[in-house]
Amino acid sequence: MILKVIAVGDIIGNSGVRELTNKLKNIKQKENIDFCIVNGENSAEGMGITEKNFNDILEAGADVVTMGNHTWGKKDIFKFIDNPKLIRPVNYPEGVVGKGYGIYECNGKKIAVINALGRVDINILTENPFLIIRDIVAKIQNEVDMIFVDFHAEATAEKIAMANYLDGKVTAVFGTHTHVQTADERILPKSTAYITDIGMTGPRDSVIGMDIQASLKRFETTLPERYKIATGKCIFNAVIFEIDDNTNKVYNIKRIFLGK
Description:
Shape: globular
Low-confidence stretches: none
Number of helices: 5
Distance between the termini: 33 Å
Number of strands: 14
Structural class: alpha/beta
Mean pLDDT: 96
Strand content: 25-35%
Radius of gyration: 17 Å
């Protein structure tokens, strides 16, 4: 028997939420998806998430919503931060509201999802994600069947290092945050599945989801031009992990890129 988990790349603004709504249910049906992880930290017009965004993403078919460096971009999040289907980076300082991982039941399996924030070029003071995840995995490994890590990080090297650090200890490590889907999906020597970045779901003709002209002005002038979400056709980026029900290990990874 095969269990399939899909992870959907960063949702960018209302247009990204609409694209998720338009595409996800059909993909889940066509691909026989059992469990869905969606990164929603950019769903509130590029920065943060609102309660409406969160509910719309769940209605579209997500089982859990992960976050990142824009977790606190909208104050609205404090109204629903304790929802078990929402997880924020686990390596925020101790005492910060919300949870950094969750355990969910699916087809008789217990699936843990951990969200962590990288530290290289992120400019947010966080605890060491390597050590935090190490300790969590040691704590829960005997009570779950699978562990997925959404590593929301800027540096490719940091993501690759994390994957090798966790190889054989978790089911899969997938990167988010840079909004560009990478073509390096593989299964590491000790069985952990990995991809550097699963991409984004949002405006195609953009600079990682943002309006091109506003982005260019920032680069030309170095002035803090206000970012705004681009308009037009959207892309849908995701990755599917196919897992052997007997071993609980990934044996195949498939990238999804719709709307090129």
